[in-house]
Amino acid sequence: MTSPNTRALRYAVVGAGMAGILAAIKLKERGEDFTVFEKAAEVGGTWRENRYPGLSCDVPAHAYTYTFEPYPEWKAYYATGPDVQDYFQFVTEKYGITPFIRFNTEVAGLDWSDSTSKWTVTLGDGSSGTFDVVIAASGVLHHPNVPRIEGLESFEGPAFHTARWDDDAPIDGAKVGLIGSGSTGIQIVTAINKRVEKLVHFQRSPQWVMPVPYFQYSDEEREAFRRDPALIDAIRFSDEYIGNVRRFTDAITDIDGPQMQMIEDICRDYFEQSIRDPELKEKLRPNYRAACKRLIYSWCYYDEVQHPAVFVETGKIARVEPKGVRMADGTFHELDTLVLATGFQADKFIRPAGVTGQGGMTLDAFWAERPTAHYAVTLPHFPNFFMLNGPTGPVGNFSLIDIAERQWDYIDQLIDVLRAGEAASVMPTVEAHAAYEERRIAAAKTTIFGSGCTSWYLDRTGVPASWPWSYDAFADAMAHPVMTEYAFKAAVAA
Ligand code: NAP
After folding, report:
1. What is the pairing mode between strands 10-14 and 324-327?
2. Considering only CA atoms, which of 147, 186, 213, 200 is closest in space to residue 52?
3. For residue 295, which of 8, 73, 207, 251 sits 20 to 30 Å off, Cα-Cα?
4. Pocket perturbation via mutation, ligand 1, pick of 78, 183, 186 by most ligand atoms within 8 A of CB
């Protein structure tokens, strides 16, 4: 339910990835005055930045769309990265969002003024503007984690992070080193193993793999999707997808329950039946529970890793040398190219932009212990500041588009109070947020993510930085903000 505007607001949306495009579409639909600031030259966020071979989205393509914009054009059950990027570009054009985006424009600072109830948004070039509302849609996984490995800078060939893929780096017929076995590293193994002379996959931790189906859609099927959107709905709202999301989130939160047992059984059986060589099998056998790290959804990794060109190196890296990687036991891997699939600094969010809220409170200070947000969306001390896919939101093998849409519904209801002229600003109370965080942290420690492994899901104190309850609990929470948990500053008379 949205109320009519009695007060005109100006909105700054930070980021033109999946969540920023969503915010822009919703604001444009309402005829609001908004600007999207995008540091790069194109929309797409993570799908623009990542171009590594094998990049695909492990959420079924038809479920990885905005609910209001199903897409008949998907080429396969799981979309490639470039196809997902095409979708976001298509949506941006279709909804006429491009004119509202300032590309190549990085937000450097956000400063709240209590006297005017406005944010000053300072850009990288030093210019600034004032806005009533900030929508922080800057994404999570966009600051590469480049490991501190001795000698890395001495490597003579190309060495680069996966989010900075070097198209000129030798891959075909080359000796390639790949450090990291998260979703990214695993996808790269499956894409380049047959192109290289040798692929040394440096694996610090093995992964549990969930087998999933894969198939292409034919031209006839795409034509049928175009004619009859109900066919798309039958996929994206199917029990196979929605039911899986529910079962998955139930499993995460009830780690000794039947759903988790099922996930573990499927992963273990797939592993046991797939890997033939006993030595490789021991290298690939995880010593932690399935779904503790983000599960690998793959239809081909176990086949591809057994290709003769792939060597899984589980020893400790001693250092990088000009011509390759030296292991702690003295073994040397001569390499032409070194790829760092070493993940992201997942605690940055909108930073390094400096954000200063009420009373001089900075985001760095507020997040000194861990990034946190009320129901993953709002922050005490930071009025009229709303996050999409902010800290402590749901994470796992499901669509973050759905998460962002539900968060938007929550945000929209809070902004309605501002639009109606009933308040100049809104933010959660310190007490309400502290109570939420206490409950969240207690629950998060009991989820599968806290069951004894390392991953980017954990904050630096080792607590899972995620939504620790069910999918339905999240949907319920987003449907209706608890207004008594919010402090509203009275509107200034016009
Ligand atoms: P990640 O899951 O954080 O994995 C990083 C990998 O690098 C881990 O294997 C880690 O080992 C290793 N590593 C880090 N520092 C290292 C060091 N100093 N020496 C040796 N190994 C090191 O990162 P990611 O694979 O880029 O994936 C991040 C997230 O992006 C995923 O979880 C997912 O949410 C998203 N993603 C999704 C898809 C998809 O839809 N299919 C694809 C790619 C990425 P440890 O495990 O031992 O720490």
Report:
1. unpaired
2. 186
3. 73
4. 183
- Name 145's Cβ contacts closer than 8 Å, sequence gap at least 6: 161, 342, 343, 344, 345
Residue type, 413: Q
Tell me, using a 6 A CB cutoff, whether residue 179 lines ligand 1.
Answer: yes
Q: What pLDDT band is residue 240 in, cutting at 50, 70 and 90?
A: confident
Query: Does residue 2 surpass a pLDDT of 60?
Result: no
The single-letter code of the amino acid at 455 is S
What's the whole-model pTM score? Answer: 0.96
Contact indicator for 227, 250 with CB cutoff of 8 Å = no
Rg of the Cα atoms in the chain: 23
Q: Which residues contact 25 (CB under 8 A, 6 or more apart)?
A: 66, 68, 91, 95, 97
Answer for the pair 62, 240: CB distance below 8 angstroms, yes or no: no
Cα–Cα–Cα angle for 162, 165, 169, rounded to 5 degrees: 120
* DSSP 8-state symbol, 28: H
Distance of CA 291 to the CA centre of its chain: 16
List, in sequence order, the alpha helices (H) in 75-182. 81-94
CA within 13 Å, CB half, 285: 12
Task: State how far the Cα of 459 lies from the Cα of 317, in Å rounded to an integer.
Answer: 25
What's the pLDDT score for residue 381? 98
pLDDT-derived band at 492, boundaries 50, 70, 90: low
Binding site membership of 341 for ligand 1 (Cβ less than 6 Å): yes
CA dist 493 and 474 (Å) reads: 36
DSSP 8-state symbol, 240: I
Angle of CA points 147, 150, 154, to nearest 5°: 100
pLDDT tens by residue, 332-386: 999 999 999 999 999 999 999 999 999 999 999 999 999 999 999 999 999 999 9
Output the CA angle 269-275-278, nearest 5 degrees. 115
Q: Compute the distance from residue 456 Cα to the ligand 1 centre, in Å.
A: 8
N- to C-terminal Cα separation, the chain:
25
Tell me if residue 159 falls in helix, strand or coil. Answer: strand
CA distance 454 to 182: 11
Cβ–ligand 1 contact at 271 (below 6 Å): no
365: left (phi over 0), alpha (psi -120 to 50) or beta: alpha
pLDDT band at 426 (very low <50, low <70, confident <90, very high): very high
Is the C-beta atom of 147 inside 6 A of ligand 1?
yes
Give Cα separations from 254 to 226, 444, 457, 468 (angstroms): 40, 11, 17, 10
At residue 442, φ and ψ (nearest 5 deg) are: -60, -45
Outline where DSSP puts E strands in 352-456: 354-356, 378-379, 382-387, 423-428
